[in-house]
Amino acid sequence: METKVFDRIEKKYLITATEKKKFLKVIRKYMKPDSYHKSEVLNLYFDNDNYDLIIQSIDHPEFKEKLRARSYGGYDRVFLEIKTKIKGQDANVGYKRRVMATHKDFSELTSGKTTLAELSMRSIENSNDFQIAREVDYLIGHFSLKPKILITYSRESYKGDDELRITFDENLKYRNQNLSFIKGKRDKIYFKDKRNIIMEVKAHGVIPLWLVQLMSEAKIYPQQFSKIGKVYEKLRKEKNV
């Protein structure tokens, strides 16, 4: 298993394809394509039958936590991730702890055949593996969590100095039935207008001046946009949750 722990400032912007094209001309002067420059991301969010974790997140509390499983198209990897966010004055500070498993292991976990802690013992690399696996198991058991909503999108990512990262997420789709890591023809499209790209800036510390100026000149401002929160609200309007 592979364990990662992240903490960083995160800001999100909704932009158009034209704005993205203009931004990239500047971004490419300071940043390079990430190791996985373009990828298909599939996020499977866990919750209980009352959707308590998602509803809590929508209320914008000072502290929120969620559990998701992330996979990338074409790779036999599933990352079980605990995402924690603490509201700051200018931006949210996010913490992410994750453990990696295979698709087979993930199927055993969600079917109730085993726990993540038991799976982590098969390929444990350090004590963090087991500790984070136990945290995941606790959340699943304590809140009666299970896979509830799948969200997919195409991601283009860039990296810069001081671990600055900018991602562009497009073609956001979702479903809350047939929950497997396979993109379906009946997946629903979330955005209906031109401002349909989610640009996210992730930084450890201060965001560089050139990027601040770029956003200011374009009159693009950060906003709250939780993919799972927005999709849940749309499903609720459709009376599908």
TrEMBL record:
The VTC domain, residue ranges: 8-230
A Pfam cross-reference name: VTC
Which InterPro entries does the record match to this protein? VTC_domain, VTC_sf
Specify the superkingdom. Bacteria
Q: Could you tell me what this protein is called?
A: VTC domain-containing protein
Source organism per UniProt:
Candidatus Nanosyncoccus alces
Lineage start:
Bacteria, Candidatus Saccharimonadota, Candidatus Nanosyncoccalia, Candidatus Nanosyncoccales, Candidatus Nanosyncoccaceae
